[in-house]
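Need C-alpha coordinates for this chain, all 319 residues.
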Amino acid sequence: MSAKEIDAARPVKRRAMPPLSAEGQAGLDAYATVLRTTTDASAVTVRNYLSDLRQFMAWAEGEWASGQEDVIAFTPARLTTPLLTRYRSYLQHTRQLRLASVNRALVSIKRYSAWLVSAGRITRDPAAPVKLIPETPRAPRQLEDSEEEALLAAVAAHGSARDQVLITLLLHTGLRAREVCALRRRDVTLGKRSGILRVYGKRNKYREVPLNATARAALASCLAQAGDAEAPLFPSEKTGTALTARGLGYLVAKYAALAQVADLSPHDLRHRFGYRMAARTPLHRLAQIMGHDSLDTTMLYIKGTARDLQNEVEKIAWE
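Here are the C-alpha coordinates for all 319 residues:
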Protein backbone atom coordinates (compact mmCIF):
# COMPACT_ATOMS: atom_id res chain seq x y z
CA MET A 1 0.00 0.00 0.00
CA SER A 2 1.49 3.32 -1.08
CA ALA A 3 1.54 6.59 0.86
CA LYS A 4 -1.18 7.93 -1.46
CA GLU A 5 -3.34 4.89 -0.78
CA ILE A 6 -2.81 5.37 2.94
CA ASP A 7 -3.87 9.01 2.67
CA ALA A 8 -6.94 7.97 0.66
CA ALA A 9 -8.06 5.33 3.12
CA ARG A 10 -10.86 6.35 5.45
CA PRO A 11 -9.37 7.63 8.72
CA VAL A 12 -9.34 5.20 11.62
CA LYS A 13 -11.92 6.06 14.27
CA ARG A 14 -9.57 7.26 16.97
CA ARG A 15 -9.89 8.40 20.51
CA ALA A 16 -8.41 11.87 20.84
CA MET A 17 -4.64 11.60 21.41
CA PRO A 18 -4.48 8.62 23.81
CA PRO A 19 -1.88 9.14 26.55
CA LEU A 20 1.46 7.33 26.45
CA SER A 21 4.08 6.64 29.05
CA ALA A 22 7.04 9.01 29.04
CA GLU A 23 9.24 6.32 27.49
CA GLY A 24 6.63 5.52 24.84
CA GLN A 25 6.22 9.21 23.99
CA ALA A 26 9.98 9.64 23.66
CA GLY A 27 10.12 6.75 21.20
CA LEU A 28 7.26 8.20 19.18
CA ASP A 29 8.94 11.62 19.10
CA ALA A 30 12.19 10.08 17.85
CA TYR A 31 10.35 8.39 14.98
CA ALA A 32 8.50 11.63 14.19
CA THR A 33 11.84 13.39 13.73
CA VAL A 34 12.99 10.67 11.34
CA LEU A 35 9.83 10.91 9.24
CA ARG A 36 10.01 14.68 8.97
CA THR A 37 13.71 14.93 8.18
CA THR A 38 14.63 11.83 6.14
CA THR A 39 11.53 11.06 4.06
CA ASP A 40 9.58 12.90 1.40
CA ALA A 41 6.24 11.97 2.97
CA SER A 42 3.69 14.78 3.04
CA ALA A 43 2.67 16.43 6.30
CA VAL A 44 -0.69 14.63 6.14
CA THR A 45 0.99 11.25 5.63
CA VAL A 46 3.39 11.83 8.53
CA ARG A 47 0.48 12.83 10.75
CA ASN A 48 -1.38 9.64 9.80
CA TYR A 49 1.67 7.44 10.45
CA LEU A 50 2.20 8.96 13.88
CA SER A 51 -1.46 8.84 14.81
CA ASP A 52 -1.70 5.17 13.83
CA LEU A 53 1.44 4.38 15.79
CA ARG A 54 0.29 6.28 18.88
CA GLN A 55 -2.99 4.36 18.85
CA PHE A 56 -1.10 1.09 18.71
CA MET A 57 1.39 2.01 21.44
CA ALA A 58 -1.37 3.23 23.74
CA TRP A 59 -3.38 0.05 23.15
CA ALA A 60 -0.32 -2.10 23.92
CA GLU A 61 0.43 -0.23 27.13
CA GLY A 62 -3.21 -0.58 28.14
CA GLU A 63 -3.11 -4.33 27.50
CA TRP A 64 0.05 -4.75 29.56
CA ALA A 65 -1.34 -2.64 32.40
CA SER A 66 -4.29 -5.00 32.92
CA GLY A 67 -3.90 -6.56 36.35
CA GLN A 68 -0.56 -4.80 36.94
CA GLU A 69 0.25 -2.15 39.49
CA ASP A 70 3.17 -0.65 37.58
CA VAL A 71 3.01 0.94 34.12
CA ILE A 72 4.80 -1.10 31.48
CA ALA A 73 6.10 1.31 28.88
CA PHE A 74 6.17 0.58 25.17
CA THR A 75 9.69 -0.04 23.90
CA PRO A 76 10.93 -1.49 20.60
CA ALA A 77 12.04 -4.65 22.38
CA ARG A 78 8.45 -5.39 23.38
CA LEU A 79 7.22 -5.33 19.78
CA THR A 80 6.38 -8.91 18.78
CA THR A 81 4.51 -10.69 16.02
CA PRO A 82 1.80 -12.08 18.35
CA LEU A 83 1.21 -8.58 19.73
CA LEU A 84 0.65 -7.27 16.21
CA THR A 85 -1.72 -10.06 15.22
CA ARG A 86 -3.73 -9.42 18.39
CA TYR A 87 -3.91 -5.74 17.51
CA ARG A 88 -5.07 -6.58 14.00
CA SER A 89 -7.84 -8.73 15.47
CA TYR A 90 -8.74 -5.95 17.92
CA LEU A 91 -9.13 -3.40 15.14
CA GLN A 92 -11.08 -5.76 12.91
CA HIS A 93 -13.37 -7.52 15.39
CA THR A 94 -13.55 -5.38 18.53
CA ARG A 95 -13.42 -1.96 16.91
CA GLN A 96 -15.04 -3.30 13.72
CA LEU A 97 -13.17 -0.88 11.51
CA ARG A 98 -13.27 -0.99 7.74
CA LEU A 99 -10.62 -3.22 6.18
CA ALA A 100 -8.95 -0.22 4.53
CA SER A 101 -8.59 1.45 7.94
CA VAL A 102 -7.20 -1.71 9.56
CA ASN A 103 -4.69 -2.16 6.76
CA ARG A 104 -3.61 1.47 6.92
CA ALA A 105 -2.85 1.09 10.62
CA LEU A 106 -0.88 -2.10 9.95
CA VAL A 107 1.13 -0.45 7.17
CA SER A 108 2.05 2.41 9.50
CA ILE A 109 3.28 -0.06 12.13
CA LYS A 110 5.14 -2.10 9.51
CA ARG A 111 7.01 0.99 8.37
CA TYR A 112 7.94 1.77 11.95
CA SER A 113 9.12 -1.78 12.58
CA ALA A 114 11.24 -1.78 9.41
CA TRP A 115 12.83 1.48 10.54
CA LEU A 116 13.66 -0.02 13.93
CA VAL A 117 15.59 -2.79 12.17
CA SER A 118 17.41 -0.39 9.84
CA ALA A 119 18.34 1.82 12.79
CA GLY A 120 19.73 -1.15 14.71
CA ARG A 121 17.22 -0.84 17.54
CA ILE A 122 15.98 -4.41 17.05
CA THR A 123 17.62 -7.32 15.22
CA ARG A 124 14.62 -8.78 13.38
CA ASP A 125 11.41 -7.36 11.98
CA PRO A 126 8.44 -8.77 13.94
CA ALA A 127 5.95 -7.05 11.63
CA ALA A 128 7.20 -8.74 8.46
CA PRO A 129 5.12 -11.94 8.90
CA VAL A 130 1.94 -10.00 9.70
CA LYS A 131 -0.30 -9.98 6.65
CA LEU A 132 -2.71 -7.28 5.62
CA ILE A 133 -6.36 -8.27 5.38
CA PRO A 134 -7.28 -9.00 1.77
CA GLU A 135 -10.19 -6.99 0.46
CA THR A 136 -12.59 -8.63 -1.96
CA PRO A 137 -12.77 -6.47 -5.10
CA ARG A 138 -16.22 -5.13 -5.76
CA ALA A 139 -17.72 -5.47 -9.19
CA PRO A 140 -17.66 -2.19 -11.14
CA ARG A 141 -20.86 -0.26 -11.58
CA GLN A 142 -23.21 -1.63 -14.23
CA LEU A 143 -24.85 1.03 -16.36
CA GLU A 144 -28.46 0.13 -17.06
CA ASP A 145 -29.82 0.01 -20.62
CA SER A 146 -32.21 2.86 -19.80
CA GLU A 147 -29.32 4.96 -18.44
CA GLU A 148 -27.28 4.44 -21.60
CA GLU A 149 -30.27 5.36 -23.75
CA ALA A 150 -30.88 8.52 -21.73
CA LEU A 151 -27.21 9.50 -21.96
CA LEU A 152 -27.12 9.04 -25.74
CA ALA A 153 -30.34 11.04 -26.10
CA ALA A 154 -28.86 13.89 -24.05
CA VAL A 155 -25.68 13.98 -26.15
CA ALA A 156 -27.69 13.87 -29.38
CA ALA A 157 -29.90 16.73 -28.22
CA HIS A 158 -27.29 18.96 -26.60
CA GLY A 159 -23.84 17.81 -27.68
CA SER A 160 -21.49 18.71 -30.50
CA ALA A 161 -20.52 16.23 -33.20
CA ARG A 162 -17.21 15.71 -31.38
CA ASP A 163 -18.96 14.86 -28.12
CA GLN A 164 -21.29 12.39 -29.83
CA VAL A 165 -18.31 10.56 -31.31
CA LEU A 166 -16.54 10.59 -27.95
CA ILE A 167 -19.41 8.99 -26.04
CA THR A 168 -19.97 6.43 -28.79
CA LEU A 169 -16.30 5.50 -28.84
CA LEU A 170 -16.13 5.08 -25.06
CA LEU A 171 -19.14 2.76 -25.11
CA HIS A 172 -17.86 0.66 -28.02
CA THR A 173 -14.12 0.39 -27.32
CA GLY A 174 -13.78 0.43 -23.52
CA LEU A 175 -10.82 2.82 -23.69
CA ARG A 176 -9.59 4.58 -20.57
CA ALA A 177 -10.12 8.34 -20.42
CA ARG A 178 -6.45 9.15 -20.93
CA GLU A 179 -6.22 6.69 -23.82
CA VAL A 180 -9.10 8.39 -25.63
CA CYS A 181 -7.67 11.86 -25.06
CA ALA A 182 -4.22 10.83 -26.32
CA LEU A 183 -5.52 9.56 -29.67
CA ARG A 184 -4.29 11.29 -32.79
CA ARG A 185 -5.77 11.06 -36.24
CA ARG A 186 -2.93 8.79 -37.37
CA ASP A 187 -3.90 6.27 -34.68
CA VAL A 188 -7.09 5.34 -36.54
CA THR A 189 -7.28 2.88 -39.41
CA LEU A 190 -10.68 2.30 -40.99
CA GLY A 191 -11.67 -0.32 -43.55
CA LYS A 192 -14.97 -1.39 -45.00
CA ARG A 193 -15.40 -4.31 -42.61
CA SER A 194 -12.77 -3.67 -39.96
CA GLY A 195 -10.83 -0.99 -38.18
CA ILE A 196 -8.34 -0.51 -35.38
CA LEU A 197 -7.16 2.08 -32.90
CA ARG A 198 -3.48 2.15 -31.97
CA VAL A 199 -3.47 2.79 -28.23
CA TYR A 200 -0.76 3.40 -25.66
CA GLY A 201 -2.17 2.45 -22.29
CA LYS A 202 -0.81 2.14 -18.77
CA ARG A 203 2.99 2.19 -18.55
CA ASN A 204 2.97 3.14 -22.25
CA LYS A 205 1.95 -0.41 -23.15
CA TYR A 206 0.92 -0.64 -26.80
CA ARG A 207 -2.16 -2.49 -28.03
CA GLU A 208 -4.47 -2.43 -31.02
CA VAL A 209 -8.19 -2.13 -30.28
CA PRO A 210 -10.62 -3.40 -32.92
CA LEU A 211 -13.49 -1.19 -34.01
CA ASN A 212 -17.00 -2.46 -34.61
CA ALA A 213 -19.35 -1.03 -37.22
CA THR A 214 -20.80 1.54 -34.82
CA ALA A 215 -17.39 2.86 -33.79
CA ARG A 216 -16.18 2.89 -37.41
CA ALA A 217 -19.18 4.91 -38.55
CA ALA A 218 -18.70 7.44 -35.75
CA LEU A 219 -14.99 7.84 -36.47
CA ALA A 220 -15.53 8.08 -40.23
CA SER A 221 -17.64 11.17 -39.70
CA CYS A 222 -14.97 12.58 -37.41
CA LEU A 223 -12.15 11.93 -39.92
CA ALA A 224 -14.16 13.26 -42.88
CA GLN A 225 -12.94 16.73 -42.00
CA ALA A 226 -9.43 17.48 -43.28
CA GLY A 227 -6.69 17.60 -40.68
CA ASP A 228 -3.05 16.83 -39.98
CA ALA A 229 -2.27 13.21 -39.15
CA GLU A 230 -0.50 14.29 -35.96
CA ALA A 231 -3.42 16.42 -34.77
CA PRO A 232 -5.42 15.31 -31.73
CA LEU A 233 -8.43 13.22 -32.70
CA PHE A 234 -10.48 15.02 -30.05
CA PRO A 235 -9.19 18.57 -29.66
CA SER A 236 -10.40 20.92 -26.97
CA GLU A 237 -12.93 23.35 -28.40
CA LYS A 238 -11.27 26.14 -26.39
CA THR A 239 -7.55 25.56 -26.95
CA GLY A 240 -7.32 23.26 -29.96
CA THR A 241 -4.91 21.03 -28.07
CA ALA A 242 -5.81 17.50 -27.03
CA LEU A 243 -8.79 17.21 -24.70
CA THR A 244 -7.65 16.33 -21.20
CA ALA A 245 -8.95 13.45 -19.09
CA ARG A 246 -10.32 16.04 -16.68
CA GLY A 247 -12.12 17.78 -19.54
CA LEU A 248 -13.55 14.47 -20.71
CA GLY A 249 -14.79 13.78 -17.20
CA TYR A 250 -16.51 17.14 -17.18
CA LEU A 251 -18.24 16.40 -20.48
CA VAL A 252 -19.51 13.00 -19.35
CA ALA A 253 -20.75 14.48 -16.09
CA LYS A 254 -22.53 17.30 -17.96
CA TYR A 255 -24.46 14.94 -20.24
CA ALA A 256 -25.13 12.55 -17.35
CA ALA A 257 -26.75 15.41 -15.46
CA LEU A 258 -28.91 16.25 -18.46
CA ALA A 259 -29.87 12.58 -18.70
CA GLN A 260 -30.51 12.41 -14.94
CA VAL A 261 -27.95 9.63 -14.54
CA ALA A 262 -26.18 10.03 -11.20
CA ASP A 263 -22.41 9.96 -10.65
CA LEU A 264 -21.28 8.92 -14.12
CA SER A 265 -17.63 9.01 -15.20
CA PRO A 266 -15.75 7.99 -18.36
CA HIS A 267 -14.60 4.87 -16.50
CA ASP A 268 -18.23 3.83 -16.01
CA LEU A 269 -18.59 3.80 -19.81
CA ARG A 270 -15.49 1.60 -20.00
CA HIS A 271 -17.18 -0.73 -17.52
CA ARG A 272 -20.34 -0.76 -19.64
CA PHE A 273 -18.25 -2.03 -22.55
CA GLY A 274 -16.60 -4.63 -20.30
CA TYR A 275 -19.89 -6.02 -19.01
CA ARG A 276 -21.47 -6.25 -22.45
CA MET A 277 -18.41 -7.90 -23.97
CA ALA A 278 -17.96 -10.35 -21.08
CA ALA A 279 -21.40 -11.77 -21.76
CA ARG A 280 -20.31 -13.00 -25.20
CA THR A 281 -16.49 -12.88 -25.40
CA PRO A 282 -13.82 -15.20 -23.93
CA LEU A 283 -12.18 -13.41 -21.03
CA HIS A 284 -8.64 -13.74 -22.35
CA ARG A 285 -9.67 -11.90 -25.52
CA LEU A 286 -11.52 -9.22 -23.58
CA ALA A 287 -8.45 -8.69 -21.38
CA GLN A 288 -6.39 -8.12 -24.53
CA ILE A 289 -8.87 -5.60 -25.92
CA MET A 290 -9.17 -3.66 -22.64
CA GLY A 291 -5.45 -3.72 -21.83
CA HIS A 292 -5.71 -5.68 -18.59
CA ASP A 293 -2.47 -7.15 -17.27
CA SER A 294 -4.32 -9.78 -15.26
CA LEU A 295 -7.41 -11.87 -15.94
CA ASP A 296 -8.38 -11.21 -12.32
CA THR A 297 -9.33 -7.68 -13.37
CA THR A 298 -11.36 -8.92 -16.31
CA MET A 299 -13.10 -11.47 -14.08
CA LEU A 300 -14.83 -8.61 -12.25
CA TYR A 301 -17.12 -8.22 -15.24
CA ILE A 302 -18.64 -11.66 -14.70
CA LYS A 303 -19.00 -11.29 -10.94
CA GLY A 304 -22.65 -11.30 -9.99
CA THR A 305 -24.20 -8.23 -8.42
CA ALA A 306 -26.43 -8.49 -5.37
CA ARG A 307 -29.44 -8.34 -7.69
CA ASP A 308 -28.02 -11.09 -9.92
CA LEU A 309 -27.50 -13.36 -6.94
CA GLN A 310 -30.96 -12.59 -5.57
CA ASN A 311 -32.48 -13.55 -8.91
CA GLU A 312 -30.60 -16.85 -8.88
CA VAL A 313 -31.73 -17.94 -5.42
CA GLU A 314 -35.31 -16.93 -6.22
CA LYS A 315 -35.34 -19.62 -8.89
CA ILE A 316 -35.55 -22.36 -6.24
CA ALA A 317 -38.00 -20.63 -3.92
CA TRP A 318 -41.05 -22.75 -2.84
CA GLU A 319 -43.42 -19.85 -3.07
